[in-house]
Amino acid sequence: MTAARVSTPLPELHERLDAFKLAASKVILDKDREILLTLCCLIANGHLLIEDVPGVGKTTLVKTLARLLNLETSRIQFTNDMLPADILGSSIFDETKRTFLFHRGPIFAQLVLADELNRATPKTQSACLQAMEERRVTVDGVTHHLPDPFFLIATQNPRQQVGTYPLPESQLDRFLMRVELGYPSRAAEKALLLGESRLTMVEDLSPVFEPQDLLSIQDASRRVHVSENIVSYIQDLVAKTRENVAVGRGLSPRGSLCLVHAAQAWALLQKRQMILPEDVQAIALAVMSHRLNPVDDLSGETGVRMAEDILASVRVD
């Protein structure tokens, strides 16, 4: 299913974005910044990686997004015995028609929740690579296009947990952003304990956008002005990641583009038509942290800490 691209006036878009943020914040308590980053990622037409311990609301956040955006969704629970065909689909021989018919897998949805992606083996993880990069998949030599819009939101358990496989750099680089939800505040947890079931609240939500509206917002985001000074600032950040001897690999050109597109989306959410340095700074950790891996695993460094150091060391002209 492909949504038609229509133009929506910016004042109306901003009004409905405010309604979206308000509705989401009533379900996902005390996580306004994480909600904004997640919405920013979708507006930038990127895929999202959510990494955290089980039970902090990762799946609830995705279901809330899907409901408010009225997207066709599917959920894939990754396990270590899954095969690529369980994700992409397979060709099955139809005896009545005497031919092979392709049966689509759960990847064919507008928003795909890849739950606990790093519990699957590398072979199964790789089934998502073409889908994430090209918005299409190839099975038995035949290419099948995915819906438009298409997003993959993956949850990942911490690496030290039992039964996990590290995501390779090639896959991590295909996620535009990585976010952590973290534990709720004491007040938010009290509201969770005393309040209505989050699942019921999600079911009661009414869509704020239709898929074609999201496509219109994405188009508006790409029209946000990017000045040469902002490009230079982003290039300085990227160069710093490549020069840092503690980093295994610096950001790729794809990472540079992700910084630009995410900053455009963030500026749009702030109701601006040009990127300011603070827009880059607001999204930089989410875009950079999962792309930075320390050379020495025993150093205690993390991608987040390295991204923070790099962000603090680059001067804004």
Q: Summed up, what is this model?
A:
The chain is an alpha/beta fold.
Describe the structure.
The chain is α/β, with parallel strands linked by helices. It folds into two domains: 8-210, P-loop containing nucleotide triphosphate hydrolases (Rossmann fold, 3-Layer(aba) Sandwich); 224-317, Orthogonal Bundle (Helicase, Ruva Protein, domain 3), CATH 1.10.8. It contains 14 helices and nine strands. The model has no long low-confidence stretch (mean pLDDT 88).
Could you describe the largest sheet, including whether it forms a barrel? 5 strands, parallel
User: What is the H/E string?
Assistant: HHEHEHEEEHHEEEHEHHHHHHH
Cα Rg: 20 Å
In total, the number of domains comes to 2
Q: Going across the major beta sheet, what is the strand order?
A: 2-5-8-1-9
CATH class of the largest domain: Alpha Beta
Shape: globular
Mean pLDDT: 88
What is the name of the CATH topology of the largest domain? Rossmann fold
Number of helices: 14
Count of distinct strands: 9
Tell me roughly what share of residues is in helical segments. 40-55%
Uncertain spans: none
Report the CATH architecture of the largest domain.
3-Layer(aba) Sandwich
